[in-house]
């Protein structure tokens, strides 16, 4: 009965979520919890990217995905230094001519603070196949 209640409250795509869990080998993985309250964004992202790559383990190899799973709490309380809150801008293109969109860090923090941490960590990972299969979508 409780499983049915939990399944009815899930609002995402269940097939996609289960496929993502099946693709990750959970054996030997640890779950790391990071508290972002009062932490500087870049320093926190570099710690998370090190854990996701598995560089903190003695069995690290650059061609294997041996990293641990990371959970970030209090993402809305992350700090930035300098004038980045107003000066840092995220750009994306919609695919239509002339539709280059932009959003400042302050606006992005108001809309979705987890996306700020996710993009910071994703951009610190090496650009290879392991980045595409990394556990980046499970961060926040």
Automatic annotation (TrEMBL):
GO terms for cellular component: mitochondrial large ribosomal subunit. It holds the Pfam family Ribosomal_L13. One of its GO terms (biological process) is negative regulation of translation. Keywords: Ribonucleoprotein, Ribosomal protein. GO terms for molecular function: mRNA binding; structural constituent of ribosome. NCBIfam families: rplM_bact (TIGR01066). Belongs to the universal ribosomal protein uL13 family. This is Ribosomal protein L13. It comes from Gossypium raimondii (Peruvian cotton).
